[in-house]
Amino acid sequence: MSMEFTDDPGAVDWVRLSEVFKRAPLGNRAANKLEEVFQNSPIRCFVWDAGELIGAGRAITDGVRYSVIFDVVLLPEYQGRGIGKQIMDFLADRSKARAILLYTVPEREGFYAKLGYRKMKTAMAVPMTETFGSDWTDTEPPTQMSTTR
Fold first, then answer.
1. What is the pLDDT of residues 92-128, one digit of tens each?
2. Which fold has domain 3-148?
3. In Å, how far are 43, 48, 130 from 39, measured between CA atoms?
């Protein structure tokens, strides 16, 4: 298994990435919105196996104190092989931040707990509006978790 981890969105087929989210299963994501959010994120990870996109993730950071990781996804047939951890390490290492926040779905909390992430007691958010969410996903907004490196 020769995986390639890159941060270059140039070769990404956004429709394919949308399909990866659907198969993961992490909901329906519009390809054009995935392209927009990944292009606007300074830290990105794309995972390729034999030229096929199988996973991804993205983060934003201030480069010193805080980073937030979003949209970590991996096809089910690749899960359980350490690739998800490699995506997380790729994003965290490039963030150069001490505290890493994570935006995830409740069904994946066990995976992130194994990596040292813990639920936050003080996080707050303004919920996504129906208008915003309608072209992004058909699933409920994820919960937040955090850890300090």
1. 999 999 999 998 888 899 999 999 999 988 888 887 6
2. Aminopeptidase (3.40.630)
3. 9, 18, 24
